[in-house]
Amino acid sequence: MNQRVSRRAFVLAGATLALAPLAGCSLGSAVSFNGADITGADFGRDFRLTDPDGRERTLADFKGKVVLMFFGFTQCPDVCPTALARAAEVKQLLGPDGERLQVLFVSVDPERDTPEILRAYTAAFDPTFLALYGDSARLAETAKEFKVIYQKVPTGSSYTIDHTAVTYAFDPQGRLRLKLSHSQNAIEYAADVRKLLHSA
Amino acid sequence: MKLFIRTIAAATLVAASSAHAQVNVTVKDAWVRATVPTQKATGAFMQLQAARDSSFVSVSSPLTPNVEVHEMAMQGDVMRMRQVRSLDLPAGKTVELSPGGYHIMLLNLKGQVKEGDTVPFTLVFEGKDGKRETVEVKAPVRSLTSQARPAHAGH
């Protein structure tokens, strides 16, 4: 259809959004973040995944909150617990603003990550954190939409999964805004979440 | 604010069972990450230091027959973990098995690994002369949410 026209419109909309903060506040330049600013990205628009209670969830469910979304699997003893522990620390650093943070953990291991394991896993870090999953087809679609790589790799007696280890941040309007790196810490993440909560 | 504190005192080193009077390899601050019920794998972390050039060649535990040493490496934004068959321990250097690098994987677990439990390990090291040394370690299980270095502990 009119892909080119709608993309131009989208870019214009993005530019307008980026300039919007200048209108209402005293900042001399656009807000700067610790994470990579991907405001206006044409990917990562939404997801349709299942929560451990079997309910289908989409991004709209979390409007009004900043969403931090991480892809991982529970048999990952290093990066995934570290990312979730960091998210828990972010929530604490936010204080009362922590009520407006939603952390999502999307499993890239549908074969081994059962709803039961996922529910208990995220609850161990914080009772408000939510795991999401899909069957292999849904996972493939979601990973593609979010430009996330994941790949099973055999190891000794089992397998591990190589996967993109970034955290995506959505603003309270449900727009994808930032790509935060695994090398950044809770203080840097919390600062960005605060900015997303308090701007626009 | 909750602090995630490394409890160095919790690690225990039992004397090496080697015939040599001199202990070659010391193991410090060993810990295992707890699991949630029905979770099948987890990681163990520790610091190794050898007095003489050695290799860490194998590890076993009564907890599961499937114990492997893995290395985690970030390639840009992508995390990769690979099994390593042996780990070099240059003389006098502390080699860390910690989040962000090497770790021991405990796979195909039969039950939950609970905070407060202790997991025994048998670590085997080999010197340049081919002589092997065994070290028994009892690693405490720490919370699943343990961080090696929380952000607010300082840069």
Short structural description:
The complex is a heterodimer of chains A (200) and B (155). With 200 residues, chain A is of the alpha+beta class. In chain A, 36% of the residues lie in helices and 22% in strands.
SSE arrangement:
The complex is a heterodimer of chains A (about 200) and B (about 160).
Chain A: H1 3-24, E1 36-37, E2 49-50, E3 56-57, E4 66-72, H2 79-94, E5 101-107, H3 115-125, E6 130-132, H4 136-145, E7 150-155, E8 158-164, E9 167-170, E10 176-180, H5 186-198
Parallel strand pairs in A: 4-5, 5-6
Antiparallel strand pairs in A: 1-10, 2-3, 4-9, 7-8, 9-10
Chain B: E1 12-13, E2 25-33, E3 42-50, E4 54-60, E5 66-75, E6 78-84, E7 87-89, E8 94-97, E9 102-107, E10 118-127, E11 132-142
Parallel strand pairs in B: 2-11
Antiparallel strand pairs in B: 1-11, 2-3, 3-8, 3-9, 4-7, 4-10, 5-6, 5-9, 10-11
Question: If you had to describe this structure to a student in words, what would you say it looks like?
Answer:
Chain A has helices at residues 3-24, 79-94, 115-125, 136-145, 186-198, and strands at 36-37, 49-50, 56-57, 66-72, 101-107, 130-132, 150-155, 158-164, 167-170, 176-180. Chain A is an alpha+beta fold. Chain A folds into 2 domains: 1-27; 31-198, Glutaredoxin (3-Layer(aba) Sandwich), CATH 3.40.30. In chain A, the strands form 3 sheets. Chain A has a 6-stranded mixed sheet. In chain A, strands 2-3 form a two-stranded antiparallel sheet. In chain A, helix 2 (79-94) links the parallel strand 4 and strand 5 (101-107). In chain A, helix 2 (79-94) crosses helix 5. The longest helix of chain A is centred in the N-terminal third of the chain and has 22 residues, at 3-24. Chain B is an all-beta fold. Chain B has a single domain, classed as PCu(A)C copper chaperone (Immunoglobulin-like). Chain B contains no helices and 11 strands. In chain B, a hairpin with an 8-residue loop joins strand 2 (25-33) and strand 3. Chain B is globular. The two termini of chain B are 17 Å apart. Chain A binds chain B through residues 74-79, 81-82, 84-86, 88-89, 92-93, 112, 114, 116-117, 120-121, 124-125, 149, 153, 155-158, 160, 162-166, 181-183, 185-188, and chain B through 1-2, 4, 33, 36-43, 65-66, 68, 70, 72, 74, 77-83, 99-100, 103, 105, 107-108, 143-148, 150-152.
